[in-house]
Amino acid sequence: MINFTIECANPASQIIEIRVKIPVTFPSKIKMQLPAWRAGRYQLANFAQFIRNLTVLDQKGKEQAHRKISKDCWAFEAKTEGTYEVAYEFYAGKMDAGSSWVDEQQVYLNLVNCCLEISGTQPYSYGLNLSLRGYSDLVCTLPKTGKNNFEAKNFQELADSTVLAAKKLTHWKYKVGEIQFHCWIHGQITFDKNLFLERLKTVSEIQIRDFGEFPEKEYHFIFQLLPYPHYHGVEHKKGTVITFGPAESLKEEKQMAELMGVSSHELYHAWNVCRIRPKELLPYDFSRENYTESGWVLEGITTYMGDLYLLKSGFFDLKDYLKELEKTINKVSENFGWKNQSILDSSFDLWLDGYQVGIPDRKVNIYANGSLIALALDLLLLKNGSSLPEVMKMAWTRFGLPGKGYSNLSFWKLLRQKGDSEELDSFYTRFISGKENILEFLEEHLHLLGISLEKHPSNNPLIKEAGILVEKNKVRKIHPDSPAYSKVMVGDEIQSVTSNENVQLEIQRINGSQYSFSFPVQDSNYFPHFHLKTRKTTVQREKWMK
Asked: Which CATH architecture group holds 293-301+317-455+530-545?
């Protein structure tokens, strides 16, 4: 067994000390690879920038020569058999659901950030000893072998695990059948325990019902409730970490809906992504980029399903659900990346700039656009008497349960089995591999659910007539079909706006220049606000909500 020991002598420094004991049974070159990224965020994080003072000791305790062979991989020659020890320090100074943080109240670690994958010796399991004095409460999502000892059967399991040691943790539990769910909460609690657990349990029950089973016997929700605004969640096979703030705001139902939304989303990942996974990501290669075109399945379907299960569980009524859907639709309506890049290419480019705004209208958002694509596919399946949850159950039994990765083609075949194959293939060509506007499809097909999608023009002439969106008086977006597109720049400061027969603009550019532009009022309707309205209920709506 390869054994990790983690200590924290000085929490104020936010440094943890890590020692790794590596058994070597034959002379070999030992490589120690620190992950360059983490699951759930397909972008290089370069965790090696938080490592310092790495040393290697031989079996006699003498310092052993080693060298760095890449930005995040170290190596040494083990010339004789025995146990070698590697020691290093890791800076845990970032608080979000996928990073690590240390202070006087807690030691919070996502092990993928700080643990080395060892190769060059025979394959071993990984042991973990947590020597964290002063923190009386502890949760670790690895199997427990002793009071502060845990074990992972391989590095993939180690990298998928979380540690939270704290002076005070709140621990709540609920069961769904024989499955034990844990809620670990660090931070201020301002909401009703019983109501929260009842809601979370109902969401869990409906998701498990639709998949037919849950992949684990135990599952851990780890909540970091923070005193400042924050919103983030990361999936793991045996649990999720969710960072949310401000904690005090959770006494408001609107903010509780946000927490329930991310909780439902991350729970759905226990099937989709953690186990139902494209071939390119099975297993994860943490040393480099793992390119995939399947972002619309990984995050788009999960985003759609996360919210849908709030409706199915009764946490949302239809009116509340449609308000959330409206937000997504209006967000997507402002982005014209679909004109320039398919969602397949945008998924592939996550490793380039997928989590930044990027240049105007270069790409589509795999979460928002992907969720609307998932809704559209659900409409086509419901029309044929099936549904997307039924397809995802098939994906679980075909790919997730046996640990077999899917390809774009093999996943699409599941949809074709449950829907009109010709209609679905046309949809794929237009909206998944192609560059068409998914909102136009929804306008045409939402009537299947007894819902209409309506466009309401803006009352602001700058938006409606000139196609200009501003933030703090500065231009943040220009509609590509607007006459302003050839006159106004992002970042221009709007000095004044007048409107009669013409929209007259006075702007100041960042270079100090001042300009006047005018555009004729032509009853344009740039950046309309989309509104969802319920009509008469339908058979498809009843099945969709059930």
From this structure: Orthogonal Bundle (1.10)
**Strand intervals (E) in 41-145:** 51-57, 63-64, 67-70, 73-78, 82-91, 101-102, 106-110, 117-119, 126-131, 137-140
The C-alpha atoms of residue 191 and residue 223 are separated, in whole angstroms, by: 13
Structure tokens that stand for 357 in this block: 């705004």
Q: Are 305 and 392 in contact (CB under 8 A)?
A: yes
Cβ distance 95 to 16 under 8 Å?
no
CATH topology of domain 170-270: Neutral Protease; domain 2 (1.10.390)
Q: Does domain 2-166 have CATH number 3.40.190.150?
A: no
On average, the pLDDT of the chain sits at: 97
Would the pLDDT of 486 be above 80?
yes
DSSP conformational letter for 47:
G
Q: Determine the pLDDT at residue 267.
A: 98
For residue 177 the two structure tokens come to 């059948």
Q: State the CB neighbour count (10 A cutoff) for residue 155.
A: 25
502 pLDDT tier (thresholds 50, 70, 90)? confident
Burial of 61 (0-12, 13-18, 19+ CB in 10 A): exposed
What are the backbone dihedrals phi and psi of residue 154, each rounded to the nearest 5 degrees, phi first? -160, 180
Nearest-5° Cα angle at 225, 223 to 229: 130
**φ, ψ at 49 (rounded to 5°):** -65, -15
Token pair of 269 as six digits: 């990942």
Q: How confident is the model at residue 515 (pLDDT cuts 50, 70, 90)?
A: very high
**Residues 24 and 121 sit within 8 Å (Cβ to Cβ):** yes
Average pLDDT over every residue of 469-482: 95
Indicate where the chain has its CATH 1.10.390.10 domain(s).
Answer: 170-270, 293-301+317-455+530-545
Which DSSP state fits 143? Answer: P
